[in-house]
Specification:
heterodimer; A: 302 residues; alpha/beta; Rossmann fold; 9 helices; globular; B: 425 residues; alpha+beta; Elongation Factor Tu (Ef-tu), domain 3; 3 domains; six-stranded mixed beta sheet; six-stranded antiparallel β-barrel; 7 helices; 23 strands
């Protein structure tokens, strides 16, 4: 066969993801794209733009804002939405935010449960969305390794790992009853390195926190936290200045930075390729208890 | 795109205790597909259980509930890459829900890795794995004779098992089989050759994975473009979005639309990154046509002189995946390419005993059964025999009441043209 018909792994992954996006748009009444402002969401967004070009993305974006997201993320999100003319819905659980929900007060599990999981479920049911597209990847975490690309959720938004629909070829079962929904993961087969290589190839804009820079930080519980409006030094802690970057972005009080010199994409790609630690290690939420992601997902966590 | 990494998807199948998880764990570990914190979490686990050596197989054991029970319940997907390729492993567990899982894992694979234990040789399970591999028409099979360390790395034992396997598999329709020795536990012939099996001159496992030729596995002859959705941003643009499932298309090529049979030409091949002169499988593109024709999701664009079968009755192999059995006369939704049609099981022809490969008459298929049926659909479907085209020759059956994916199907022939398959039992 002619060499001209070669298809690289990134082309392959891209084509599969576009296919999945289009299946969602065609088969569901009211899909939504869960946009978390992170690098995976940035790739997801570009793939959605590609899938429907020259048309617009035929569904809205939804950001669940816990109120503790890095300020740079929020600025990035709002600029992007304006520049690209995106239909962006921002959902905040004002109810619990007003009550002072915070990881230091209620513990990380509870904070996540109310400000993320519950907020997500509330916003999905308010919007009557029957399909929610997310940027999760199977490589990220062991309970994700077994999740379907089209992952069924019952009326409570819960995942049942022991009762998943078989998924064969590219034939996705999109049948749901009223009130039930599907989470769709077009990036299932991508790895962290694939994401970075794609961001570079496609020149996709990402939040600057991913690049190493001298930042004011506080070391706490084995995490390197940014000294920002959400994290003040406690007694005995001091503010240091270090070259750090974030491998994943979440809420400021629970997202740890890593010491790094990678200030551009090539640096990040080299770092990830040589990485000996997985990217979720600095996410405190996965470590609260063994199998905690699995537990969260059963409750409806994304 | 020359010189860039490509993508290989493979399925691993094995019986209980044949060292499959150890092999995958080692592969991930030695190719850096596993991260330090994931490693330390299994070290902790070993400590908790009071075991001295870290068990690499734990790297691939998934869910908490599975680890507690010491079983795996579902297909798990694993990823690693080398300088030459990115790999996706569909890891099919050896026991519970065996057939359903392996069929699922095999449906997207270019290569099947079948493990067997050097002390036990070719078992019924090995035959089962091989049968499913041929049923799903996976182009390449690599048979790994594992645990060679437990038989003193004996060349004679390896050769005997290889001979047994090739004798058995000659009855199956397999295009490309390789048999290799290994000790996944000791690491011989996984990513390194080791020094115990100098008598074996073939490639290591990783070398094999990196070099198996998959370019010619793609069907680049029959252009098939199932329409997913119509893109109409304004009155001037009407494009048909889809993935080229097989074949090649160029600007200016003639096309026909199925099932209507209307004809036109390709006006443009549109992508976000600019228009293309030519596109090929498996690219996702948007096609615009010279003429205004009514086309919607579920239609298929093809070349005028290369037409798939169009029939409302055909013969298919079914793998049943639901607790509620499939019965003759049962009604389902049949999903094939981007098309979903009501279907009825017109006739149950036979069930296959996947241990002996014998056929037996039966009027229903239970969970994990495989059998041959004749299906009648409410509207004609456009398909090619599975062997020629996996994308247009496969379907799933959905139970309309429970919404579950109840069965997977492979189309062989239109009904009425039923060549008798040889009895392989």
């Amino acid at each position: 066969m002619s060499d001209g018909y070669k298809i690289s792994y990134l082309d392959n992954l891209e084509s599969e993801s576009i296919y999945i996006m289009r299946e969602v748009a065609a088969e569901f009444e009211k899909p939504v794209l869960l946009y978390s402002v992170g690098k995976d969401s940035s790739v997801l967004l570009r793939l959605a733009q590609k899938a429907f070009y020259p048309g617009k993305i035929p569904f809205p974006l939804l950001h669940v804002d816990t109120s503790y997201k890095f300020t740079e993320m929020i600025e990035f999100r709002d600029n992007l939405a304006q520049r690209e003319g995106l239909n962006l819905i921002v959902h905040r659980s004002e109810n619990y935010i007003k009550k002072g929900m915070h990881p230091s007060k209620y513990g990380r599990d509870k904070c996540c449960k109310f400000l993320k999981t519950q907020a997500l479920l509330d916003s999905l049911s308010e919007g009557k969305f029957d399909a929610a597209i997310g940027g999760a990847r199977r490589e990220e975490e062991k309970s994700r390794a077994k999740e379907r690309i089209f992952s069924f959720r019952d009326k409570f938004g819960a995942w049942d790992p022991k009762n998943q629909r078989p998924e064969l070829w590219s034939l996705f079962n999109t049948n749901v009853d009223p009130g039930e929904s599907v989470r769709v993961f077009p990036l299932s087969n991508w790895t962290e390195l694939d994401i970075w290589n794609y961001i570079k190839r496609e020149e996709i804009d990402i939040v600057p926190l991913y690049f190493a820079k001298k930042r004011k930080i506080i070391r706490r519980d084995g995490l390197i936290l940014l000294n920002d409006e959400f994290n003040d030094p406690r007694e005995g802690e001091k503010v240091e200045e270090e070259m750090v970057r974030f491998r994943t972005l979440g809420c400021s009080p629970c997202s740890g930075a890593v010491e790094s010199q990678a200030s551009d994409l090539d640096g990040i790609i080299a770092e990830v390729a040589a990485a000996l630690k997985s990217e979720r290690e600095n996410r405190a939420i996965d470590y609260e208890s063994e199998g905690s992601m699995e537990t969260k997902k059963k409750e409806g966590y994304f | 795109m020359k010189g860039e990494k490509d993508l290989l998807r493979f399925v691993t199948a094995g019986s209980i205790d044949d060292g499959k998880s150890t092999l995958i764990g080692r592969l991930l570990y030695e190719s850096k597909g596993i991260y330090k914190d994931q490693l330390s979490s299994i070290e902790e686990f070993a400590e908790k259980k009071g075991e001295k050596e870290v068990d690499l197989s734990l790297l691939v054991d998934g869910l908490k509930s599975e680890r507690e029970q010491g079983i795996t319940i579902d297909v798990a997907y694993r990823y690693f890459s080398t300088d030459r390729r990115k790999f996706i492993i569909a890891d099919s567990p050896g026991h519970v829900q065996y057939t359903r899982n392996m069929v699922t894992a095999a449906s997207t694979a270019n290569l099947a890795v079948i493990l067997l234990d050097a002390r036990k040789g070719v078992l019924e399970q090995t035959k089962r794995h091989s049968f499913i591999t041929t049923l799903l028409d996976i182009p390449h099979i690599l048979v790994v004779v594992n645990k060679m360390d437990l038989v003193d790395y004996s060349k004679d034992i390896f050769e005997k098992i290889k001979e047994d396997y090739l004798e058995f598999s000659s009855r199956l329709n397999i295009h490309d089989i390789q048999v290799m020795p290994m000790s996944a536990l000791k690491g011989d012939m996984v990513t390194r050759r080791g020094d115990k099996m100098d008598w074996y001159e073939g490639r290591t496992f990783l070398q094999f994975l990196e070099n198996v030729n998959i370019v010619s596995d793609r069907n680049l002859i029959d252009f098939r473009f199932p329409v997913q959705t119509v893109i109409r941003p304004d009155l001037d643009f009407r494009g048909y979005a889809g993935r080229i499932e097989s074949g090649v298309i160029s600007k200016g090529n003639d096309i026909a639309v199925l099932p209507s049979g209307k004809k036109s030409r390709v006006k443009s091949i549109v992508t976000y990154d600019g228009e293309l002169e030519e596109a090929y499988a498996p690219q996702s593109v948007i096609l615009t046509l010279e003429d205004e024709i009514d086309i919607s999701r579920g239609d298929m664009l093809i070349r005028q002189r290369n037409v798939p079968d169009l029939a409302d009755e055909f013969e298919a192999e079914i793998c049943w995946m639901d607790e509620v059995p499939l019965e003759e006369g049962g009604r389902y939704l049949l999903k094939q390419t981007t098309n979903t049609v009501p279907a009825i099981i017109k006739e149950m022809r036979y069930k296959i005993d996947i241990n002996t490969l014998h056929r037996k008459e039966d009027k229903e298929l239970g969970l994990n059964d495989i059998g041959r049926v004749i299906i009648k659909t409410q509207r004609p479907v456009m398909y090619d025999p599975y062997e020629r085209n996996h994308a247009t020759g496969s379907f799933v059956l959905i139970d309309e009441l429970s919404n579950t994916t109840a069965g997977a199907g492979i189309i062989w022939y239109p009904s009425g043209k039923l060549p008798e398959t040889e009895n392989t039992g």
